[in-house]
Design goal:
Order of helices and strands: HEHEHEHHHHEE
CATH architecture of the largest domain: 3-Layer(aba) Sandwich
Strand order of the largest sheet: 2-1-3-4-5
Oligomer: single chain
Number of domains: 2
Distance between the termini: 59 Å
Radius of gyration: 19 Å
Low-confidence stretches: none
Shape: globular
Helix content: 25-40%
Strand content: 15-25%
Length: about 190
């Protein structure tokens, strides 16, 4: 059975048997928290369990590496929506050890793109249009530095109130142990 059909078949039973009921909550996070974390499959449930966050407690934003690399990109917009529209009062960036972004190589990725049908002319067109794919597809060498950089980008955003603490953590994807990188309370206006 194709994956989509498997998902839809399961969902039909899920809804018919009202298995959604334990997950009912409002759109506002009970802990007034928004978490930015990585899309790594090992973290799907581990991050929330390790932080004692249950369904309805937090807003969760995910991307490759838990990285904020543009102050006016979709990640920052999502964090601002969580703060202004959904009543989040704290932000936590959670990176993780053994992150795929720490070994991301633009040349290797572009080679894989070519193998899957992306034409060399496409790369040339993007380059001519001012897109530096090698810079855009680069990873990081230190997860702690990346988390610190993302917390700085968020905390110093001109549209984020200075009263919002922005914390930075790194999680072990095997054990769930959290290491503090940035304590956002230390950066609040006193």
């Amino acid at each position: 059975m194709p994956l989509l059909q498997e998902i839809l078949s399961f969902n039909k039973t899920f809804v018919e048997e009202k298995e959604y009921e334990p997950f009912k909550t409002s759109k506002f996070p009970d802990k007034k928290l928004v978490i930015l974390t990585c899309m790594d499959a090992r973290l799907l449930e581990l991050v929330t369990k390790a932080m004692n966050v249950k369904n309805g407690d937090a807003k969760i934003v995910r991307n490759a590496g838990a990285v904020v690399d543009h102050p006016f990109g979709s990640i920052m917009r999502s964090l601002l929506v969580a703060v202004y529209e959904l009543q989040a009062d704290e932000i936590v960036v959670v990176g993780h050890y053994d992150c795929g972004m720490s070994s991301l190589d633009s040349h290797s990725m572009m080679k894989k793109m070519t193998e899957r049908g992306i034409e060399a002319e496409t790369f040339e067109t993007l380059n001519y249009g001012g897109i530096d794919l090698h810079n855009w597809l680069k990873g990081f060498t230190s997860v702690e530095e990346s988390v610190s950089h993302s917390t700085d980008m968020i905390r110093n955003h001109p549209l984020l109130p200075s009263s919002i603490p922005v914390h930075g953590l790194v999680i072990d994807p095997t054990t769930g142990k959290l290491d503090e990188v940035v304590n956002g309370y230390n950066h609040l206006d006193k």
